[in-house]
């Protein structure tokens, strides 16, 4: 049986499909990832692949058929190309609903070794169209779970909003495929309402905290001075852009 190299996901290269399975090297986070995915399966969450086993240092997962918005040439600061269906308001609402179901399914999961604080759950950790399987333009599952980690539901919604709304500059939105720059405040409101957030006053502050958290992880990436500086400047650019949009976003969320 011939292996098919898969382009989806950003955290683990060298992923191949073999029949109805996906195979890739076991990562350092495998104990947590496998325990989490098995928990999601046990509680009936169908928006994630199943862990089928490990064979000689290669993990075997179930293959989730569909389309992933993966751009092999993507670099930070570039818009991620999306089809018309993927960037539709309907898809935005459905991915918010899928995220809400993930959070509900995550309740009760305790990672190996514990470590959850009050109000925290484990979630995907790198949600975006590049890690989402779409079928007929509808989001049906999340893939590439190597970044799963503790977070709070609000921070996870904020992180997902950055990626799915998406909260980006006009240039990036056009690169993503939008023919006309959309009303980001309106799309953010659609997303958080579809998720079911009652008190929206904490959403914009959470958007800031998410980027500060991501910047804090640069230390653990093993980068040199130059690449670390580039990464930190990327997050700083996003926060500067967010400051220019804060009034509009807060108005839309009232």
TrEMBL record:
Residues 122-175 form the Aminoglycoside phosphotransferase domain. Pfam families: APH. This is Aminoglycoside phosphotransferase domain-containing protein. It comes from Kribbella italica.
């Amino acid at each position: 049986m011939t292996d098919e190299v898969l382009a989806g996901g950003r955290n683990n290269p060298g992923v191949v499909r073999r029949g109805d399975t996906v195979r890739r090297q076991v990562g350092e986070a495998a104990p947590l990832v496998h325990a989490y995915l098995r928990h999601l399966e046990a509680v009936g969450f169908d928006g994630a692949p199943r862990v089928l086993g490990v064979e000689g240092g290669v993990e075997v997962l179930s293959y989730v058929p569909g389309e992933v918005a993966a751009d092999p040439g993507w670099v930070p600061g570039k818009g991620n190309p999306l089809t018309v269906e993927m960037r539709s308001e309907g898809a935005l609402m459905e991915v918010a609903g899928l995220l809400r179901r993930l959070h509900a399914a995550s309740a009760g999961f305790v990672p190996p070794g514990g470590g959850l604080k009050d109000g925290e759950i484990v979630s995907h950790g790198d949600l975006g169209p590049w890690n989402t399987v779409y079928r007929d333009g509808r989001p049906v599952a999340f893939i590439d779970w190597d970044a799963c980690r503790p977070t709070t539901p609000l921070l996870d919604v904020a992180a997902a909003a950055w990626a799915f709304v998406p909260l980006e500059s006009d240039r990036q939105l056009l690169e993503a495929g939008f023919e006309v720059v959309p009303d980001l405040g309106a799309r953010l409101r659609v997303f958080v309402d579809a998720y079911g957030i009652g008190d929206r006053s904490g959403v914009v502050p959470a958007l800031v905290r998410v980027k500060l958290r991501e910047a804090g992880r640069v230390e653990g990436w093993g980068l040199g001075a130059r690449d670390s500086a580039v990464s930190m400047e990327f997050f700083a650019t996003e926060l500067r852009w967010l400051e220019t949009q804060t009034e509009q976003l807060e108005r839309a969320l009232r």
